[in-house]
Every structure is written in C-alpha cells, then in structure tokens.
Amino acid sequence: MFLKGLVSKRGGLLRIILLVAVVLISLSSLLYAQTETYDKALRAYSKKDFKTAVKYLKEYVAQNPDADAYYLLGYANYKLKKRKEAIGYFKEAYLIDPNFTPKSIEFKGTVKNK
User: What is the span of the domain harbouring residue 88?
Assistant: First the structure.
C-alpha cells in the first residue's frame, strides 16, 4: 500500500517537473526570439536602414513594451518622414518611462552616457 502511494506521488511529481521544464524551455526560446528581434532592429538602425528597423521594432514592442524601443521606433519613423507616427511613438516612450532619456539606449552591448 505504501509503495503504491509512493509510486503515484512520484509519478505526479515527475509530471510536474516535466511540465515546469517544458514551460522554462518555451519561455527561454521566446525571450531569445525577442532579443534577436531587438538586435536585428538595432543593427538596421545603426546602418540607417530605418524601414527595416521599423519592421523589427514593431515586432519587438508588440511583445515587449520598452521605452528605448518606442523611442527608436519614433526616430526611425521621423527619418522616414512619417512625422505623425513618430510623435505617437515618442509619446509612448515617455508614457512608459517619464524619466526616459535617449542617452540610455544601448547599442552593440555598450551603454551611452547612462
């Protein structure tokens, strides 16, 4: 009787451990995809390929609202002469973080004047 209860508890525990492992793997791959999208946006932005930067930044902010990303999205739209869209994205950056400053945006792993 004791052994039967132990086996069923162990089976339940193994299921929980397996479920947690699957969730963690899924989350890590999702986070990697978001980071990769943001990195692609930064590379395009640094090359002054603002159209591509807008594409990746829109993907990124849809999943991860971030003041830096919204500001870059605003500036990229500004450079593409899409002034009304740019203003909306700039406002969003400051709504997310009222103390936001463009100097805090990270490029290629370095922080500018933080």
Answer: 2-111
